[in-house]
Amino acid sequence: MHGPASPGWLLVALCALTGGYCLLRMRSAVEEQRRAAGGEALMGFGMAAMAVPAAVAVPPRWAWVAYVVVFGAAALRALWTARTSAHHLHHLVGAVAMVYMAVVMAASPGSHGGGSPVLTGTLLLYFAGYVLWAGVRLMPVAGPGSVNVARGGTGWGDRPEVARACRLSMGIGMFAMLLTV
Hints:
This protein has six helices and no strands. By secondary structure, the protein is an all-alpha fold.
């Protein structure tokens, strides 16, 4: 991505770690969680690869075409699975954003800008809203008489709050990447 190297490497690390955790979540006993985790792992690793600072490695043009093909296929899959799960609509928007960024990067390698201000702004608004919504969902809500009970037998890979934190971090990463378009 375009932009300074230090934040770029932090973004690479954040997205790669998130993708790695999502791979672990694919071992869940819950089928829907496994499916969602697979798409999120692809997104995390794809964002990590795309976020490598341009000062370090400028991908060849064919790499951007590969991003378009991979995330175009991911968008089609998310569109298909969105019939049964609204969460996959978010995957669809994320995959479309990745395709958009890959097209912009292929068209203007090594320079800021080049994307559609309206589309970039719309995606920035979406991800800003998503980050705020996901952040609010992480805040604990204790009602009168509620008790915090430890979950017996649930592995740390099946913890919904950690999955939400991963989605939040990927939303922040996507927002940061879109700022450079």
